[in-house]
Each structure stands twice: as C-alpha cells, then as structure tokens.
C-alpha cells in the first residue's frame, strides 16, 4: 500500500517535471486531431499521429524529414505504423525528459550547436540520440 502510494507520487512528479514540454507537445497533438490525425495512450505517454504535425515532421531539416518527435510525455509521429517503429527510441527520450525536465530541450540544442561548431553531426553525434539509438533495435535513420 505504502509503496503503491509513493510509486504514484513519483509518477506524478515525473509528469509534472516534464509538463512544460508535454504541454507544447499536446498543443501540436490537438492541432493534429483537428486536422485528421489520431491519438492513443501507451503507458504514461500520449501518442499522436497524422494531421498537420505529420506534415511539419516531414519538413524537418534531417534527410527525408523526421519519423517522430518526443516532447515530454507526448510523442508525435508521421503515421501510426511509425509510432510502433519508433517507440523504443522515443521511450529513451521520454526518460531523458523525466531526468532533465524543462532543461532537456536547452541541453539537447546546446549539444547540437556545440557539435555543429566543432564539425560533428548535430543529430547523430548528439549524446541524447546516441543513447536512444543504442537501445532501439532498429536503426531507422530519421528518428528524433
Ligand atoms: Zn531521437
């Protein structure tokens, strides 16, 4: 009983800590729902696919566009099959948000900028991506 309560309190803390970026993700998710996309919940992650956010992902400046992006406890994907393909990768990003909370995006972009400045790949050399690619069984080239 006690451990169940503290487990819930811990989950609530993780959701709250990552909430600033989850809210940004949820706004894009709602935009997706309003433009023909769908949504589902997997564990404590809200997953969205399709609609205008899918179109934006396709325009992202990674070769061929991004398959999916994680914003806090929200994952946006170009399609429902891509959600399944990228879930193990994006789950690591969710864990990174749970660790760093509001500081995840500044840390991620800071690394990317530094890597770009020293001539390395801002995406594939990013330690956050290296960790995520290290655990996902399929190395799809355009996950984010
Ligand atoms: Zn990634």
Describe this structure in words.
The protein is of the alpha+beta class. It has one domain. Helix content is 58%, strand content 12%. It contains 6 helices and 4 strands. The chain has helices spanning 2-17, 19-34, 51-58, 80-100, 104-117, 127-135, and strands at 38-42, 45-49, 68-71, 74-77. The protein has a 4-stranded mixed sheet with strand order 1-2-4-3, sandwiched between helices. Helix 2 packs across helix 3 (51-58) and helix 4 (80-100) crosses helix 6 (127-135). The chain is globular, with a radius of gyration of 15 Å. The N and C termini lie far apart (38 Å). Bound molecules: zinc ion (ZN). This is DUF4157 domain-containing protein. The chain crosses the membrane at residues 12-34, 54-76, 97-116. Keywords: Membrane, Transmembrane, Transmembrane helix.
